[in-house]
């Protein structure tokens, strides 16, 4: 099963040949030339994509399938015929809102499994020179902050607030982030949104082909204040075993989000 969903890895594209990938909402066409690479991408609209097919490195004639996007010529003479696709997490934090009201009872805790969007990085040659990065399912943008002055531009998402990892559908264009929430207050915690500092998270792959981030956690104290989100640097405890797939885009456990994270719940 893992093999069927593993779109990342290294591929051979001889000179004057082309390959096609369909991952999530992304159509990706790549051709090799003696002086470099031709890359064309096309993003399907989200409302057109319910259960998109997955197609991996299909051999095609170089006839890009649309005229709505440009072909980019990456001049890279001397490279060999290897092309590597690397899954990457988003370059901004992700603000995820529950699809239905979700309330955590007093003195209770829960782990949510939240999906986060992925990008693909194209690298060429034995030196793995980066050509470009493309979103597999482009999210919309939103502002997260205490005012229009202090805050950060983030990506917006929706979550089903699943509490069982096995209930999360296997979708190759996203990673799963386990988020532990603890409510120590004497009233219920109505969850309006969760904010994932995605650029600070490492990426792992499990044996079933799912991509995961490290675990996160936060706590609502006795006075009803939500603390800063804590980022782990190890794989989730379950289901495992794990293989590290990528380092965090940014190091460190603090970010602009931490300065006012708890004030927005």
What does this protein look like?
With 265 residues, the protein is mainly β. It folds into two domains: 2-87, no CATH class; 90-117 and 139-264, no CATH class. Helices cover 2% and strands 48% of the residues. It has one helix at 2-5, and strands spanning 9-12, 18-23, 26-33, 36-43, 55-60, 72-75, 82-89, 94-98, 102-104, 108-124, 129-135, 140-145, 151-159, 174-183, 189-191, 194-196, 203-206, 211-213, 216-220, 230-231, 242-246. Strands 1, 7, 10, 11, 14, 19 and 20 form a seven-stranded mixed sheet that branches. A five-stranded antiparallel sheet has the order 5-2-3-4-6, with no helix packed on it. A four-stranded mixed sheet has the order 12-13-8-16, with no helix packed on it. The longest helix has 4 residues, at 2-5. The chain starts with a helix and ends in a 19-residue tail after the last strand. Mean pLDDT is 85; it is low at 254-265.
Indicate the structural class: mainly beta
Q: Residue share in helices?
A: under 10%
**Rg of Cα set:** 20 Å
Strand share of the residues? Answer: over 45%
Note the run of SSEs as H and E. HEEEEEEEEEEEEEEEEEEEEE
**Overall pLDDT, averaged?**
85
Query: How would the global form be characterised?
Result: elongated
Helix count equals 1
What is the number of independent domains? 2
- Give a quick account of the main beta sheet: strands, pairing sense, barrel closure: 7 strands, mixed
Oligomer designation: single chain
Task: Report low-confidence residues grouped into runs of 5 or more.
Answer: 254-265
| Ends apart, CA distance between termini | 39 Å
Number of DSSP strand runs: 21
């Amino acid at each position: 099963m893992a093999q069927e969903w593993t779109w990342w890895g290294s591929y051979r594209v001889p000179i004057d040949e082309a390959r096609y990938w369909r991952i999530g909402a992304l159509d990706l066409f790549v051709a090799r030339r003696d002086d470099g690479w031709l890359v064309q991408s096309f993003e399907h609209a989200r409302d057109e994509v319910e259960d998109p097919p997955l197609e991996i490195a299909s051999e095609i004639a170089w006839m890009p399938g649309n005229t709505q996007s440009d072909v980019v010529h990456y001049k890279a003479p001397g490279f060999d015929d290897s092309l590597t696709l690397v899954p990457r997490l988003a370059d901004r934090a992700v603000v995820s809102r529950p699809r239905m009201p979700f309330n955590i009872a007093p003195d209770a805790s829960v782990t949510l499994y939240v999906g986060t969007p992925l990008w693909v990085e194209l690298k060429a040659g034995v030196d793995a020179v980066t050509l470009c990065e493309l979103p597999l399912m482009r999210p919309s943008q939103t502002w997260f902050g205490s005012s229009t002055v202090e805050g950060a531009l983030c990506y917006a998402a929706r979550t089903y607030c699943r509490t069982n990892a096995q209930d999360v559908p296997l979708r190759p264009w996203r990673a799963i982030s386990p988020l532990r929430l603890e409510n120590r207050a004497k009233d219920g915690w109505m969850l309006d949104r969760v904010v994932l500092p995605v650029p600070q998270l490492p990426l792992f792959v499990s044996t079933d082909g799912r991509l995961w981030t490290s675990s996160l956690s936060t706590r609502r104290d006795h006075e009803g204040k939500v603390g800063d989100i804590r980022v782990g640097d190890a794989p989730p405890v379950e289901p495992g075993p794990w293989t590290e797939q990528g380092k965090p885009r940014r190091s460190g456990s603090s970010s602009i989000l931490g300065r006012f994270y708890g004030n927005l719940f």
